[in-house]
Amino acid sequence: MPPEKKDRSPVALEQRDVSADQRMFSPSVARNSAPILAVLKRVLPTHGAVLEIGCGTGEHAVYFAGAMPNLTWQPSDPDADARTSTSSWIKFAGLKNVLAPRDIDVCSGQWGVEQTGHFDAIVSINMIHIAPWATSLGLFAGAGRLLRAGGLLLLYGPFMRDGAHNAPSNAAFDAALKERNPSWGVRDITDLEHVGEAAGLNLRETIEMPTNNMLLVFSSGSA
């Protein structure tokens, strides 16, 4: 792995509109929310607590929580503007099962949510490829600490398999990411499996998603 830059500031790779009440609108969320929700409804429990890492605009949080009212959704993002947008979306949607967004640095040994107990699932969407590899390590380490036995870590985005991209567009995207920051890039499922195993997480399912994305489902220990 190349040397990593210390700046772990979140990055948006798209243009986003912003409303007067500071809600941000993500074109990618508009495209991927429904396919992701279909998977979440199948794999998540009907009741429980979900932690979202890298909630971005907050649109996913309110969309998923609105469709699964018996789950408590805890969004988080290290970016202040993202948390502001998420708070505004929560107010706009009027949902009671979405908590105020938290500021979580996954590379920290403590995420500040340990006192809430174990989570049934941790969800991270389109995050680990626009962050240093240390972020992936921290995400799995935190999931190992904070998921209950049988809890799930779900990762959505582009991935490689055994060093190979699943589409030319993803190869070009990977090259563009590395040109922007050598510590970024599309992650290999095999590498993530090894990191997961070290944290007590096993890859349970690899789901093909639209536009050459995937959703990886890791399980913590035994149910």
Quick overview:
By secondary structure, the chain is of the alpha/beta class. Helices cover 35% and strands 24% of the residues.
Summary keywords:
globular, alpha/beta, 6 helices, Rossmann fold, single chain
Record the SSE blueprint.
Elements (H helix, E strand, L loop, with lengths): L16 E2 L5 E2 L1 H17 L4 E6 L5 H9 L3 E6 L3 H14 L25 E7 L7 H14 E11 L1 E2 L7 H13 L6 E2 H10 L2 E8 L5 E7 L3
Parallel strand pairs: 3-4, 3-5, 5-6, 7-8
Antiparallel strand pairs: 1-2, 6-10, 9-10
GO molecular function: methyltransferase activity
Keywords: Methyltransferase, Transferase
Protein name: Cyclopropane fatty-acyl-phospholipid synthase-like methyltransferase
Distance between the termini: 34 Å
**Helix content, binned percent:** 25-40%
Strand fraction: 15-25%
Order of helices and strands: EEHEHEHEHEEHEHEE
CATH architecture: 3-Layer(aba) Sandwich
CATH superfamily heading: Vaccinia Virus protein VP39
Quote the average pLDDT. Answer: 92
Task: Please give the domain count.
Answer: 1
Major sheet attributes: 6 strands, mixed
The best one-word shape is globular
Oligomeric form = single chain
How many H/I helices?
6
Number of strands: 10
Keywords: Methyltransferase, Transferase
Protein name: Cyclopropane fatty-acyl-phospholipid synthase-like methyltransferase
GO molecular function: methyltransferase activity
Organism: Rhizobium pisi
